[in-house]
Design a protein that fits this description.
With 124 residues, the protein is α+β, with helices and mostly antiparallel strands. The chain has 3 helices and 5 strands.
Length: 124
Amino acid sequence: MSERGVFVYVIRSADGHVKVGTAKNIQKRLRQLQGANPHALTIEYTSGGMLRIVAEQVEFEAHHRLHEHHVSGEWFLCTVEDARSAIAGAIKYVRNRRNIYQTHTLISRNLRTAKPYSGPRWMS
């Protein structure tokens, strides 16, 4: 079963760090993180819901784009706008890669099931 209710989020800590992650229930995730963080946390951005596998790919790519700001785990020392921009770019990148993969898969499937070319039909 596919889940279309997974979100990529940006949570900001009062000390200036931002976290880029994925969650199905962002409020629940915020409560979990707040319990282990001495600074106040706020949700600054959430993407639209997407399939879990897509959200995880977007998160991975966004982390890659923010690598120079990396502090620890999924925490970065950058602006919320930097994180939002990384997520937007990651969404475009993943969407493009998925379209290329789907097109390649469709072509491959068609080539496997196609009959060998035997010239124009009128010659048969």
